[in-house]
């Protein structure tokens, strides 16, 4: 309701208000301060003399300044578009499972590949006493805190097949 009322006041007599604004003369600019006028300099010839006078002391100081500039060496653009890493990351070989051909071969330390993540989650699910967070962290060069978070928040799916005779019961 408030929006309709506001729209009514906003659109009331719009055309005549627009015509009135368009038909107005160009507004006169605000008066300038007397010191900003250039004709004030014409009235005072001593100021103009001071402006155009050369100062010998400043000229000698200016002659003592020596500036030497060189262009930076031109860079060769190979057009590759790839940025090379600034520092060499320490990499480790992956623990390849049964999907070895699909997995990457080298991974930076502190990270794991998808296949490794699925493998370690499955190993922990099947044998939690053997595959503890400490052992996983040591095996895959990970931080213990990250491994604990991984084991807590990520659970691999379990595929269950129902016998044919119980399908109707479901």
UniProtKB/TrEMBL annotation:
GO CC: one term?
mitochondrion
Among InterPro entries, the record links this protein to: NDUFAF4
Report residue spans for region: Disordered. 17-44
In Swiss-Prot or TrEMBL terms, this protein is called NADH dehydrogenase [ubiquinone] 1 alpha subcomplex assembly factor 4
A GO BP entry is: mitochondrial respiratory chain complex I assembly
Q: Which superkingdom heads the taxonomic lineage of this protein's source?
A: Eukaryota
Source organism of the structure: Caloenas nicobarica
Q: How does it assemble?
A: Binds calmodulin. Interacts with NDUFAF3.
Record's compositionally biased regions (Basic and acidic residues): 17-27
Which family does the entry's similarity section mention?
A: Belongs to the NDUFAF4 family.
């Amino acid at each position: 309701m408030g929006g309709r009322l506001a729209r009514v006041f906003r659109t009331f007599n719009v055309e005549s208000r627009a015509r009135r604004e368009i038909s107005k003369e160009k507004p006169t600019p605000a008066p300038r301060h007397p010191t900003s006028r250039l004709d004030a300099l014409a009235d005072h010839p001593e100021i103009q003399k001071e402006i155009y006078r050369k100062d010998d002391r400043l000229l000698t100081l200016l002659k003592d300044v020596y500036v030497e500039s060189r262009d930076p060496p031109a860079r060769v653009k190979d057009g590759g578009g790839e940025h090379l890493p600034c520092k060499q990351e320490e990499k480790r070989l992956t623990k390849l499972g049964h999907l070895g051909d699909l997995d990457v071969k080298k991974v930076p330390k502190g990270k794991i590949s998808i296949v490794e993540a699925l493998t370690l989650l499955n190993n922990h699910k099947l044998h939690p006493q053997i595959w503890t967070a400490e052992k996983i962290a040591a095996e895959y060069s990970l931080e213990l805190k990250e491994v604990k978070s991984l084991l807590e928040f990520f659970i691999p799916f379990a595929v269950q097949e129902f016998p044919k005779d119980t399908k109707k019961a479901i």
